[in-house]
């Protein structure tokens, strides 16, 4: 048994040391957002955040996650209370099939946590590991820019209320 | 009532000029779907094949409304568009109804969700069914209130009388009221009064998709579900000669190894256990392979050298028109992959002789037929339920994964079995978009008009979808295998390899020959736009070659040969929005390109202007910006339409610049994203603009595949404009561009 911290909660999971995080998230913890796309670290669909860094969960073995904080898209917000990045993707209608989108959002979220006002070039460079087959790229870029603006506003309002998501 | 009787009745009514109280014929606003007087009147869209109104719309006593479509949501967003259409014609709030998609137990059989036909088939059926249901509810209210129908109106799910008395749809609807056949025409709303149709209503599926909700078949978790992986042969036709599975069966969590001749799979309690067992099983399996693949380097000659059935599909002659200058050219396209980001997946459960399969197939009914045949079960004992998968863009591994799941589930009665393909399996085993060759020859007269046009296209079929079990890999690999069915060319006017092969322009002399190649050395099937992608690429590239020969501007040259008003409108709109000028000069190492097509020559119109940058040192091209104009008839959801065209341009750019399936003499060698590279963010354009020409009240023309051909040709023409060199062999790699520049 291993202890895994996901979205602020500790879970006891029965997983081998070499099991990629993706399967524990999906199979043991029943989380949907991180997607299986290639299992090879080539497409980005499985991206989650580990201690603030965007990580490809399909090639990250459990042994590397002891004591670390894992955040998945589910940990950011809900339909009723979406996080800024989620609101931004809804408002820009930045999806067709949407399968690649959660991975894109997690890497964008990690970027925006480090750099609240990225340039278009920085966003494009950051999203380089991610593939989208529907051709939704223009909307994804717009959504990340919108998320940066929303997070700015959210920061201001949550600071005022003294709470932060 | 039989057909001829309806014909007679309709003709009598239409000709009498009398006031007939019949909602189907009484309205001046009725949208006549141009049925000629001699044809039997059919209700529009898929109401032709599923005429009962309650196949499309059901209302319960509480007023809850459910709308049914036999089409599958693939990420195009039409579930939202259908909801808009139904709510509009029923006069109810958008949120008050629910749309249920393809399910062999619940919905109409609408065949495949393909060909940009969903709006035309299902959207039209729902629109007319909703209008007719509303009319029935008004008629019932008129009866109960003893008031003329004309005095009643509908609003927010109720019929309202002049005195304010309100009867809700739930109160009005009686047991079998909607179990009636659709009338040939409907009293549709005046488009000027639309409140929902034409609005960019946000997609209903996006909130779950961006918050981790269960949105895909991959996300299904049924009680007691087990995880299966298939071990596919290493190549087409490989025979399993040896497989000692004893050690695999003892691995942790392994429930069963399923072997049925060349079909090999393993089932485990947990997904990671199934992966480890699959790897062990693959290592234990010995296969006898046959070198059966053609020479990739010589593919065009291989294809044109295969036996073909040649059909002249278009011929027009005017001996008076003769040319003075003639050019010819050959264009080629490689095999290309759908390349879904999520490999195919399905869940199946076999209980008491009844098989249920949850699948992202594009055709629940045809796939059910194939799976039932494979399992030797009556189709009524097999239920297929569509659940979204990753975008498919045509016939990918979806149907095969569904068959895999069914075959494995039969071996484990009672337990739900989830089959997940690997990335390598999806890349190696999906049926590819067929390679194609086109040969063009045309002549200009002294005035720079095309007077003679010859177009030959060589291609396989563009659909090997089920139907029969023989289309499914599992059925091909099992003991007593099902043979791959004989391929057939898809009939015109939509066509397959010859889709969009007939020019939409007016030429005095023209001849188009379809060389249909039955032999399929590589597994192929339908990929977004079918033959239209390459045919439009060829025609529109050659139009630019001819414009250059005529010394004409490419946009003006197209208009010179085009009579169709709506076609001219999209060309003019795209050119104007792009800032296209006849005497334009691009910046150093940049070029402008233009292309146009009417998809299938009968659906949506699309023109695209692009600006491309080419690095002369490396040959690397980049689409800088694209401006499209599209006319898809009556627009239902403009943002959905823009999204489809944006996506088509980006995806077609990726096909056109980067993509080709690779193989040696035995195996497919493009088996992941390293060996089959596609567009990444570094090549995403600076901007894409899509301009819609809305046609209120006109039929829905669809949009999903409209942009593929024009985008490819527009980009290719821009590369030719930037480099002064014409590339005719897809894909337009930087190596090929560099070699052309240096030549």
Automatic annotation (TrEMBL), chain A:
This is (2Fe-2S)-binding protein. Keywords: 2Fe-2S, Iron, Iron-sulfur, Metal-binding, Oxidoreductase. Gene3D superfamilies: 3.10.20.30, [2Fe-2S]-binding domain. It comes from the Bacteria. GO terms for molecular function: 2 iron, 2 sulfur cluster binding; metal ion binding; oxidoreductase activity. Residues 1-76 form the 2Fe-2S ferredoxin-type domain. SUPFAM superfamilies: 2Fe-2S ferredoxin-like, CO dehydrogenase ISP C-domain like. Signal peptide: none annotated. The keyword DNA damage does not apply. The lineage of its organism: Bacteria, Pseudomonadati, Pseudomonadota, Alphaproteobacteria, Hyphomicrobiales.
TrEMBL record, chain B:
Residues 1-30 form the signal peptide. SMART domains: Ald_Xan_dh_C. Keywords: Signal. Residues 211-291 form the Aldehyde oxidase/xanthine dehydrogenase a/b hammerhead domain. SUPFAM superfamilies: Molybdenum cofactor-binding domain. One of its GO terms (molecular function) is oxidoreductase activity. InterPro entries: Ald_Oxase/Xan_DH_a/b, AldOxase/xan_DH_MoCoBD1, AldOxase/xan_DH_MoCoBD2, AldOxase/xan_DH_Mopterin-bd_sf, N-heterocyclic_Hydroxylase, OxRdtase_Mopterin-bd_su_IorB, TAT_signal. The keyword Repressor does not apply. It holds the Pfam family MoCoBD_1. This is Xanthine dehydrogenase family protein molybdopterin-binding subunit. It comes from Bradyrhizobium archetypum.
């Amino acid at each position: 048994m291993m202890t895994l911290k996901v979205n602020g909660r500790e879970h006891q999971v029965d997983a081998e040391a070499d099991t990629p995080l993706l399967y524990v998230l999906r199979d043991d913890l029943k989380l949907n957002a991180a997607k299986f796309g290639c299992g090879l670290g080539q497409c980005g669909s499985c991206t989650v955040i580990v201690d603030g860094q965007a990580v490809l969960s399909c090639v990250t073995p459990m042994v590397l996650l002891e004591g670390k904080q894992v955040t998945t898209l589910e940990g950011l917000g809900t339909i009723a209370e979406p996080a800024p990045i989620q609101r931004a993707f809804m408002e820009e209608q930045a999806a067709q099939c949407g399968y690649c989108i959660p991975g894109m959002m997690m890497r964008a979220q990690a970027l925006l946590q480090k750099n609240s006002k990225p340039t278009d070039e920085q966003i494009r460079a950051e999203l380089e590991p991610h593939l989208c087959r529907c051709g939704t790229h223009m909307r994804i870029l717009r959504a990340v820019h919108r998320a940066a603006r929303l997070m700015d506003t959210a920061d201001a309002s949550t600071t005022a209320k003294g709470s932060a998501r | 009532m039989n057909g001829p009787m309806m014909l007679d009745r309709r003709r009598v009514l239409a000709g009498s000029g009398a006031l007939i109280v019949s909602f189907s014929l009484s309205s001046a606003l009725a949208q006549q779907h141009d049925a000629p007087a001699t044809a039997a009147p059919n209700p529009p869209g898929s109401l032709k094949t599923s005429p009962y109104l309650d196949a499309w719309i059901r209302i319960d006593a509480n007023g809850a409304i459910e709308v049914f479509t036999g089409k599958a949501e693939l990420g195009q967003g039409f579930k939202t568009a259908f909801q808009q259409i139904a709510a509009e014609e029923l006069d109810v709030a958008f949120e008050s109804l629910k749309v249920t998609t393809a399910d062999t137990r619940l919905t109409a059989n609408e065949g495949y969700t393909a060909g940009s036909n969903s709006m035309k088939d299902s959207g039209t059926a729902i629109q007319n069914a909703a209008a007719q249901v509303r009319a029935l509810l008004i008629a019932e209210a008129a009866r109960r209130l003893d008031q003329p129908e004309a005095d009643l109106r509908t609003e927010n799910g109720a019929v309202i009388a002049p005195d304010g008395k309100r009867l809700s749809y739930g109160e009005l609807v009686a047991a079998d009221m909607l179990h009636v056949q659709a009338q040939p025409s409907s009293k549709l709303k005046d488009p000027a009064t639309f409140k929902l149709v034409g609005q960019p209503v946000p997609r209903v599926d996006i909130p779950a998709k961006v918050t981790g909700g269960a949105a895909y078949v991959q996300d299904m978790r049924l009680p007691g579900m087990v995880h299966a992986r298939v071990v596919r042969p290493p190549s087409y036709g490989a025979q399993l000669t040896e497989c000692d599975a004893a050690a695999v069966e003892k691995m942790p969590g392994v429930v069963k190894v399923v072997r049925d001749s060349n079909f090999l799979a393993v089932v485990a309690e947990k997904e990671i256990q199934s992966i480890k067992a699959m790897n062990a099983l693959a290592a234990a399996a010995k296969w006898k392979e046959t070198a059966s693949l053609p020479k990739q380097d010589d593919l065009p000659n291989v294809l044109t050298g295969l036996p073909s059935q040649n059909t002249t599909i278009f011929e027009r002659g005017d001996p008076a028109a003769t040319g003075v200058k003639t050019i010819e050219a050959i264009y080629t396209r490689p095999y290309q992959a759908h390349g879904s980001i999520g490999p195919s997946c399905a869940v199946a459960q076999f209980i008491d002789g009844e098989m249920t399969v949850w699948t992202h197939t594009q055709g629940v009914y045809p796939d059910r037929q194939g799976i039932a045949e494979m399992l030797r079960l009556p189709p009524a004992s097999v239920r297929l339920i569509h659940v979204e998968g990753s975008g498919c863009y045509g016939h990918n591994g979806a149907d095969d994964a569904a068959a895999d799941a069914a075959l494995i589930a039969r071996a484990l009665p009672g337990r739900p079995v989830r089959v997940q393909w690997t990335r390598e399996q999806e890349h190696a085993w999906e049926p590819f978009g067929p390679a194609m060759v086109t040969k063009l020859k045309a002549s200009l007269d002294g005035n720079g008009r095309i007077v003679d046009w010859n177009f030959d296209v060589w291609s396989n079929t563009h659909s090997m979808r089920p139907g029969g079990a023989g289309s499914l890999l599992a059925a091909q690999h099992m003991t007593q295998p099902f043979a791959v069915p004989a391929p057939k060319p898809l009939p015109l006017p939509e066509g397959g390899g010859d889709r969009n092969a007939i020019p939409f322009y007016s030429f005095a002399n023209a001849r188009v020959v379809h060389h249909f190649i039955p032999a399929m050395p590589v597994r192929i099937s339908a990929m977004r736009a079918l033959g239209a992608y390459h045919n439009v690429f060829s025609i529109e590239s050659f139009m630019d070659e001819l414009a250059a020969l005529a010394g004409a501007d490419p946009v003006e040259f197209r208009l010179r040969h085009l009579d169709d008003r709506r076609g001219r409108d999209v060309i003019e709109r795209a050119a104007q929005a792009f800032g296209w000028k006849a005497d334009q000069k691009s910046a150093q190492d940049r070029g402008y390109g233009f292309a146009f097509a009417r998809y299938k020559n009968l659906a949506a119109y699309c023109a695209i202007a692009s600006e491309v940058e080419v690095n002369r040192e490396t040959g690397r091209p980049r689409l800088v910006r694209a401006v499209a104009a599209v006319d898809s008839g009556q627009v239902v959801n403009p943002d959905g339409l823009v999204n489809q065209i944006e996506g088509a341009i980006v995806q077609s750019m990726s096909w056109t610049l980067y993509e080709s399936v690779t193989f040696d003499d035995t195996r497919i060698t493009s088996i992941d994203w390293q060996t089959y590279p596609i567009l990444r963010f570094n090549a995403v354009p600076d901007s894409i603009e899509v301009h819609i020409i809305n046609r209120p009240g006109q039929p829905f023309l669809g949009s999903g595949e409209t942009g593929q051909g024009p985008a490819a040709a527009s980009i290719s023409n821009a590369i030719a404009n930037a480099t002064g060199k014409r590339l005719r062999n897809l894909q337009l790699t930087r190596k090929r561009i560099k070699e052309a520049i240096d030549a």
